[in-house]
Design brief:
By secondary structure, this protein is mainly α. The protein has seven helices and no strands. The longest helix has about 70 residues, at about 35-100.
């Protein structure tokens, strides 16, 4: 982590105070004039403030990138047919579990339908991932991937008291936070509160809608990480076990 932050801060300083190619020590780039030194320290402090916000997101992007690449390698080896069969197997087991559980029969049917949607989403995610260009991956593949993973459990929670006790309170808290902090502009939050009630299938609609921005957010973080890695950061692990690069 220390190496990561040191390199990121050095890169930030390079934006305004270009590194002296004859000496790579950061301190030797400090201007000698009083005004230049003040600007140097101000820019350095601003960089630390920016890193305080950006670095946690960067770590999240690294984790997302790590698991996304593992999933990508796994699905690439399976191919389209393999992904479909694997998804059917996983969500088939989940559907079978709901069938033998106390969940009502209509709940079992709903989970099966959600599993079918998840399988289609998984195959489409692989298709758009294989298309050339980062845009199709971020804009389409990531939201479809989020849908493929989270849709069936959310649907099952509509009929399972055990799952509902976990999913619904968390969903309600998340919905309130989004309305109060993100959508509380131009009357959007008030319109949603007046037009919709968060119960029943509305939870499915909520999570299905969230899959799009969540997918975009995660895809953008991975793109940021790839961009920083390609820019020439350190590629070793420090004593603290950092694997940022």
């Amino acid at each position: 982590m220390r190496v990561d932050l040191r390199w990121l801060h050095t890169s930030w300083m390079d934006i305004v105070f270009a590194r002296d190619q004859s000496n790579s020590v950061v301190e030797n780039r400090k201007p000698e004039s009083t005004g230049g030194a003040a600007a140097y320290h101000l820019w350095s402090a601003l960089g630390m403030l920016v890193l305080t916000v950006v670095y946690p997101l960067f770590v999240l992007g690294l984790a997302t990138r790590f698991y996304a690449h593992r999933i990508d390698r796994f699905t690439a080896g399976l191919g389209f047919a393999g992904v479909a069969v694997f998804s059917v197997f996983v969500w088939g087991l989940f559907s079978a579990a709901t069938y033998i559980s106390p969940i009502a029969f209509e709940g079992f049917v709903a989970v099966v339908v959600a599993g079918v949607v998840a399988t289609i989403s998984a195959v489409l995610a692989l298709y758009f991932r294989r298309l050339d260009g980062r845009a199709s991956t971020v804009v389409v593949a990531y939201p479809l991937g989020v849908t493929a993973i989270f849709l069936p459990p959310v649907v099952a929670s509509l009929y399972s008291p055990t799952l509902a006790s976990i999913v619904f309170p968390s969903s309600t808290s998340l919905a309130i936070w989004i309305l109060n902090n993100i959508l509380d502009v131009a009357g959007i939050a008030a319109f949603i509160r007046a037009s919709f009630e968060l119960q029943g299938v509305a939870y499915v609609g909520m999570w299905f809608s969230l899959a799009i921005p969540v997918g975009w957010f995660l895809g953008s973080l991975v793109t940021l990480v790839d961009g920083v890695r390609d820019s020439g950061g350190p590629h070793h692990v420090d004593d603290g076990g950092s694997k940022l690069y």
